[in-house]
Amino acid sequence: MSSRGAWDVAVVGASGAGLFAAWHLARAGQKVAVFERDDPWRPARRTLIITPSLKELLPFSVDGALLHETSVMGVASRNATAEIRFQEPDLIIERGAFLALLAREAEAVGAHLYFGHRLAELRAVDRDTVTLVFQTSSDRSPHTVQARAVIGADGVISQVARLAGLRRPQAVTILQAEVSLPVGWNPDRVQVWFDSDDSRFFYWLIPESSTRGVVGLVSDLNQNIHGLLTRFLNRLGVTPDAYQGARVAMYSPRLQPWGYVGNVPVYLVGDAAGQVKVTTVGGTVTGLWGGALAAQALLRGIPYQEALAPLKRELDLHWLLRRMLDRLGNPGYDALIRALTPKVCRFLSTYTRDEMAGRFWRLALTTPALWQIAPHLIRRPRGFVSRRQASFSSPPEIS
Ligand SMILES: Cc1cc2nc3c(=O)[nH]c(=O)nc-3n(C[C@H](O)[C@H](O)[C@H](O)COP(=O)(O)OP(=O)(O)OC[C@H]3O[C@@H](n4cnc5c(N)ncnc54)[C@H](O)[C@@H]3O)c2cc1C
């Protein structure tokens, strides 16, 4: 067994959240290493739509990963449509390029990155130190390292969470197809479609250039997401050239993304911690935010749960809204979209989906149009399986 040394902080998983935590820690002078399972490390291509809140969170430019910007979002249900024009455009980003950029920035401030290191064991050495044991791709014998704190940034099926005895989040599936935009499509326009017979979430089309885009769907794990998406692509008249898909964590206020092995803090960030807005199932900004807060907690010597308070407020709001959305059938979605009055659209165009806590309830209380949705909230249980969904037999096979 060979040793890769002793670290102030060991980060497991070169995810966005992990790399950003490492950047904060290394910049503050901590001895920090990121251990990533994959070697070669080539994160799969993924087209992400990110709110401009990303620019406030990151102290460096994301231009190297930016594909496109969109400033209009159309939303449609079976019998209603609405349009939101953002004051500041959403950013369309390529995840592989974005992670490579974060890795370069983390290394530039002194973080060490090790690839081909899969975490296998985590155990206390003494009160203030843990040993992490990694299976390596290059070597038959495992590598061990010592650390005084551990950050688990290893995604929704987090091994750090399992080894530290922490609860892992539930997951849903996202699948999107890379397509040529339909003829005449405005490349400045993202479109979202609700159809509760197909999914309690939604379909989307996101342009990533003037000619190309992705069409996708979020669904529960027991649904045939591939069958649903194929039918939807046919309806739109577009042909898939490639697919992007994976499981994504669902936030719950009951998750506790921190624990201890001996006295050593183990903090989960990103999807490992369920730091995903469950209205849109977007986890990029909230995951990076979680990474920054975990680093701040370690640097300032404050409890992670205390540092997490502003992120928790935001995620709790999205969780509550999701509980409501899960009760809407198609008539409920019609009512919701009709309630998007100019005042509500102004709110949605001014505040991003990552900065709504503290503002949303005032809007809800002072906008009678939104109260029209109330009768629809007593209707459907969440996560139901419709007859159409049940007729698809096989579950999706996506890593
Ligand atoms: C198709 C698709 C589209 C999406 N679109 C959007 C979007 O538009 N906007 C948005 O905000 N979000 C979007 N998301 C969600 C977002 O991508 C995820 O929330 C985010 O990528 C999760 O990242 P993470 O940083 O927590 O973990 P991950 O990206 O899952 O990274 C975990 C890392 O840990 C490594 N690892 C795992 N186990 C170990 C181990 N034992 N030892 C060492 N390393 C390990 C893995 O190899 C991986 O590199 C999308 C997701 C998908 C699948």
Quickly give the structural class.
alpha/beta
- Strand elements, count: 18
Strands side by side in the biggest sheet: 4-6-5-13-14-15-12-16
CATH architecture of the largest domain: 3-Layer(bba) Sandwich
The CATH topology of the largest domain: FAD/NAD(P)-binding domain
What profile does the largest beta sheet have?
8 strands, mixed
Bound molecules: flavin-adenine dinucleotide
User: What is the count of DSSP helices, taking H or I runs of 4+ residues?
Assistant: 13
- Evaluate the radius of gyration: 21 Å
- The oligomerization state is single chain
In the predicted model, the low-confidence regions spanning at least 5 consecutive residues are 384-399
Taken together, the total number of domains comes to: 3
Amino-to-carboxy terminus distance: 30 Å
CATH class of the largest domain: Alpha Beta
Helix amount: 25-40%
Q: Beta-strand level of the residues, as a percent range?
A: 25-35%
The CATH homologous superfamily name of the largest domain equals FAD/NAD(P)-binding domain
Outline: globular
Round the mean pLDDT to the nearest integer and report it: 92
Quick tags:
399 residues, FAD/NAD(P)-binding domain, 6-stranded mixed sheet, 30% helix
Reconstruct the topology from this structure.
Elements: E1 2-7, E2 9-12, H1 16-27, E3 32-35, E4 47-50, H2 53-57, E5 66-76, E6 81-94, H3 95-108, E7 112-114, E8 117-126, E9 129-136, E10 143-147, E11 150-152, H4 159-163, E12 170-180, E13 189-193, E14 203-207, E15 212-219, H5 225-236, E16 242-250, E17 258-261, E18 264-268, H6 284-300, H7 304-307, H8 309-325, H9 330-338, H10 342-350, H11 360-365, H12 368-371, H13 387-390
Helix pairs in contact: 1-3, 1-6
